[in-house]
Design a protein that fits this description.
The complex is a heterodimer of chains A (484) and B (490). Chain A has 484 residues and is of the alpha+beta class. Chain A contains 15 helices and 16 strands. The radius of gyration of chain A is 31 Å and the shape is elongated. Chain B has a domain of 273 residues: Alpha-Beta Complex (Amidase signature (AS) enzymes), CATH 3.90.1300.10.
Chain lengths: 484, 490
């Protein structure tokens, strides 16, 4: 019996707000434990939540970027359970009326073509803190810096048929959210977290098999690893005739395996009910339509535009839309006046290569570049005016990227400005003519190519800085036509 | 000692302090002395720091000496129910689970009182987490009714009511979820106002049932009650349920409120379940109102009998969630017991029986499989009760009736019978379910000398009007509203 997997992902993603969902504490990653807390996010008796409307705006962007239906009222519910990292003893979340529902995500398949997976719902909720269990200590520690950080949970339908599809879906979801400005989506920092629901069923069967939820998948690579392990495990159970138990399992990175966490019957009864501290919040059709109009352009639309309007290749557009900051920089260089093709070449060739080399050590990112679009444009203009050779321009750009010094000053510092002063070049040419008597004689004897040899000598004498066109012109002036 | 005209009026006291006739320190000393002398018998206060009170009063006097005489409560001591957070002053909700807890911040109403020049006098007793109608559920011992020390002062704001009635404080704050300001006010013979839901910020009020909790002023007379309401009411962006509109303090002080007033009198409020003396006292108020130009409008509020079951489903559900934060992890005492679940259990065993009962009931009502039958149904009935009131207020301007079915009952009489205790809320629970303002003023005494209260309920936002009518009725009733010389019935 041939089995096929059925996969759906639940993705938690931290909204890129300055402050937390219901208080004004800073929502950044890290920080000295318990330094970003207040009466509200530590659940002091009597403290009350107030909705951060910036979080709402970003959640709206997520829903719009994923083509969801948006509710014009937000209702928050309490999800009740006990854990030391959950200060109030309940999480403020959305239960039966999520902000966004029924969206979709189109992603590319390995074998070519695309697939559309449905998004069931997107809801807003607050994050919990962190409980730490130091090795060897008989205490646990709680850090509430993360408590109250705004999240959206994006629940996908079980539309994915393989670990590779799941991975492609997740990558595309991440890029979509990053381009919409919703979230950094950095799995290492926990601003993107993924749980996977997976079941197997005989190929051709309509009815879904019993699903297992896998938690604690902490990297993109591990999404595929965890799913492959689960498919194999469940398939073997089916082959042995064992029933699959509905349960939650935890992924273990070191073994690449999953282990049981809790069975369905152990599942919490979360006793959801509407949070009486947060009355229905009116989102309003206006706000939704304004957000729709202001939604940042997605990477798919950008690719289409770069190809259609600017004639870039498919490959170029992909490289330039890998990251939102790259696309942004590219577009600002074009806006500064550089031709799209030239901008694409410079960014791909030099800028991304530079970032690629420095990555790892400093974690450079195009948004942290030391140069502006205008400065890159200025550099290219210098080349176009003949003030820099192409090779020299590359060297100057490298220096600009390293130091942040502008093109003119970098070129001067590197002593790479072309010599375009005929007076200065005349002396060099006289010297070449006086020393290279044999080559001069060949030229005069009618060997036209000998001029190139003289040009090469002169270039060497100027250490490559002489303007080759000017030198050729001066040589011709001095020597006349070949054979003359 | 303060002269009688100042000890029975916070408004007059503030004026006397402002004009320099009396020092804030003298006022503080007066009330501290009364507390020292009589609170052993009454047990209105849980936390009192006379040194701090005197220092705060001195600071007000220093301000006045510098020429700064601003603030409606200048130098007036205010007693605070111990479920309102006070920075640097213990706040326990009369619970063993908050023993030793000192909040890092002031509740909104405390900030307002301090900004108005008021002096925080101390923290008053209550039923644990405001769950009760007698203060017998306080884990620090019951308060006594100053009119008869063998009887309860009502609850849950029993400490605040007793403090005002006994002349320990000219003003007090209580909180009202299902009657916890009005019922003790009625039983102690003072004025207690439950504002429209959202009129006063709940920021810093330790939540019992968030959709019903409101902070309310308590005082010897309506004028003083209005004075305190004027200070604490108003929008607060830290409470998402806070209303935008401002309290109309001028309207609340306007005369002539009874002329042409349509007073709704529901048949359900005159049942046999109401004590005959209470009924008679309320009828006398009706007659006085008519004599002053008001008209009585007979009403039917048939959903009144569903208010108690509805109320107890809503409050227990919300409380089961609101009290989850008392887990021994971040503040308050922790009882270690080997592992995490054991620690939770051991720590939460500190809750008293009534609190545990309500957490259990609420947990049950919210459980999957029961939610629709209990919590959701309760919300539907709650909605209907609101609609019934809205219809009633098409025919009348306010609804008048008894605040409580009986005057103060003896300690211990109902403490073993939760349902009998819950029935104390029969007339006070409907208004909170509908978010409406309501207040209780003294309207007479039983033959044995126990105070009786009459309740006015108004449409949403009609706080000022209720207070204006109450002031007119108070004048018509012409009762002696002085605090007791000393507690009775020891």
């Amino acid at each position: 019996m041939e089995l096929e997997p059925v996969i759906g992902l639940e993705v938690h993603c931290q909204l890129a707000t300055r402050s937390k969902l219901f208080c004004r504490c800073v929502a950044d990653f890290g920080g000295t434990p318990n330094s970003r807390i207040c009466p509200v996010c530590t659940a002091q008796p009597g403290a009350l939540p107030v909705l951060n409307e910036q979080a709402l705006a970003l959640a709206l962007n997520a829903g719009l970027a994923l083509h969801c239906t948006i509710r014009d009222q937000i209702k928050f519910d309490r999800k009740n359970y006990y854990y030391p990292d959950l200060p109030k003893g309940y999480q403020i979340s959305q239960f039966d009326e999520p902000l966004c529902e029924w969206g979709e995500l189109e992603f590319e398949l390995e074998k070519g073509g695309t697939k559309v997976a449905k998004i069931r719902r997107i809801h807003m909720e607050e994050d919990a803190g962190k409980a730490l269990h130091p090795d060897g200590a008989n205490v646990s520690l709680v850090d509430l810096n993360r408590a109250g950080v705004p999240l959206v949970e994006i629940v996908g339908m079980p539309d994915l048929c393989s670990p590779a599809e799941a991975s492609a879906y997740l990558q595309t979801l991440r890029r979509t959210l990053r381009f919409a400005g919703v979230s950094e989506c950095d799995m290492e920092k926990g601003s993107l977290r993924c749980d996977a629901n997976i079941s197997v069923r005989p190929k051709g069967q309509e009815k879904l098999g019993t699903k297992v939820e896998v938690k604690n998948i902490n990297s993109f690579k591990n999404v595929e690893r965890a799913l492959m392990f689960e498919i194999a495990r469940q398939s073997e159970m089916v082959a042995r005739g064992e029933p699959i138990v509905q349960e939650t399992r935890s992924f273990r990175d070191t073994e690449g395996s999953t282990i049981a966490m809790r069975k369905k019957e152990d599942a919490h009864d979360y006793r959801y009910f509407p949070d009486p501290d947060l009355p229905l919040f009116d989102v309003g059709r206006n706000r939704i339509e304004q957000a729709r109009a202001a939604l940042p352009e997605g990477f798919v639309a950008k690719r289409r535009r770069y190809q259609a309007s600017w004639g870039l290749t498919d490959y170029d557009t992909r490289v330039l839309t890998e990251e939102p900051a790259t696309a942004l920089f590219f577009e600002s260089v074009v806006a500064a006046g550089l031709s799209p093709k030239s901008a694409a070449n410079w960014i791909q060739g030099e800028v991304l290569a530079f970032l690629g080399e420095t990555k790892g050590s400093t974690k450079s990112d195009i948004s942290e570049l030391k140069i502006t679009a205008t400065e890159l444009h200025a550099l290219v203009q210098m080349e176009e005016r003949g003030e820099l050779s192409h090779q020299a321009a590359k060297k100057v750009l490298r220096r600009m990227l390293e130091t942040g010094v502008d093109a003119q000053n970098s070129a001067v510092a590197l002593d790479l400005l072309q010599i375009r002063d005929s007076g200065a070049l005349a002396a060099t040419i006289d010297e070449v003519i006086s020393t290279e008597t044999k080559v001069v004689a060949d030229y005069r004897g009618g060997k036209e190519t000998a001029l190139n040899a003289l040009l090469g000598r002169a270039m060497r004498a100027t250490k490559g800085k002489g303007d080759p066109n000017l030198i050729r012109e001066l040589l011709l002036q001095k020597l006349g036509k070949p054979g003359s | 000692m303060l002269p009688p005209e100042l000890s029975r009026s916070a408004t007059a006291l503030a004026a006397a302090i402002r004009s320099g006739h009396v020092r804030a320190r003298d006022a503080a000393d007066h009330f501290l002395a009364r507390i020292a002398r009589h609170d052993g018998a009454v047990h209105a206060f849980l936390h009192l720091d006379p040194v701090q009170v005197r220092a705060d009063a001195d600071a007000i006097d220093a301000r006045i000496a510098r020429g700064d005489r601003t603030g409606a409560l200048l130098g007036v001591p205010v007693a605070i129910k111990d479920n309102l957070c006070t920075r640097g002053l213990p706040t326990t909700c009369a619970s063993q689970i908050l023993v030793g807890y000192t909040p890092p911040y002031d509740a909104h109403v405390i900030e307002r009182i301090k900004a108005a020049g008021g002096v925080i006098l101390g923290k008053t007793n209550l039923d644990e987490f405001a769950m009760g109608a007698s203060t017998e559920n306080s884990s620090f011992g019951a308060s006594r009714n100053p009119h008869d020390l063998k009887r309860v002062p009502g609850g849950s704001s029993g400490g605040s009511a007793a403090a005002v009635a006994a002349g320990f404080a000219p003003l007090a704050l209580g909180s009202d979820t299902g009657g916890s300001v009005r019922q003790p006010a009625a039983l102690c013979g003072i004025v207690g106002h439950r504002p429209t839901y959202g009129a006063v910020s709940r920021y810093g009020l330790i939540a019992f049932a968030s959709s019903l909790d409101q902070v309310g002023p308590m005082a010897l007379n309506v004028e003083d009650c209005t004075l305190l309401m004027d200070v604490i009411a108003g929008h607060d962006e830290r409470d998402s349920t806070s209303r935008a509109g401002a309290f109309d303090g001028v309207g609340a002080r306007r005369d002539g409120a009874l002329t042409g007033l349509r007073i709704g009198v529901p048949a359900e409020y005159h049942s046999d379940g109401v004590d005959a003396e209470v009924r008679a006292a309320v009828q006398r108020v009706e007659q006085l109102a008519v004599a002053a130009g008001a008209r009585l409008v007979p009403l039917a509020l048939p959903l009144t009998e569903y208010a108690i079951p509805t109320y107890y489903l809503v409050v227990t559900s919300e409380a089961s969630s609101n009290l989850a934060r008392f887990d021994g992890v971040r503040y308050g005492p922790r009882d270690e017991a080997g592992d995490l679940a054991g620690m939770y259990g051991a720590t939460r065993r500190r809750f008293g029986d009534e609190v545990k009962r309500r957490i259990m009931l609420g947990t049950y009502a919210l459980s999957s499989g029961y939610y629709d039958a209990y919590y959701k149904k309760a919300l539907q009935v709650r909605q209907r009760i609101g609609e019934e009131f809205a219809k009633a207020f098409e025919q009348c301007d306010l609804v008048l009736g008894p605040t409580t079915p009986t005057p103060a009952f003896p300690l211990g009489e109902k403490s073993d019978d939760p349902v009998q205790m819950y029935l104390c809320d029969v007339f006070t629970a409907p208004a909170p379910l509908a978010g409406l303002p309501a207040l209780s003023i003294p309207c007479g005494r039983s033959k044995s000398g126990l105070p009786i209260g009459v309740q006015l309920q108004g449409p949403s936002g009609a706080d000022a009007r209720l207070l204006a009518v109450a002031r007119a009725l108070e004048r018509a009733l012409a009762l002696d509203l002085s605090p007791l010389e000393s507690p009775r019935g020891a």
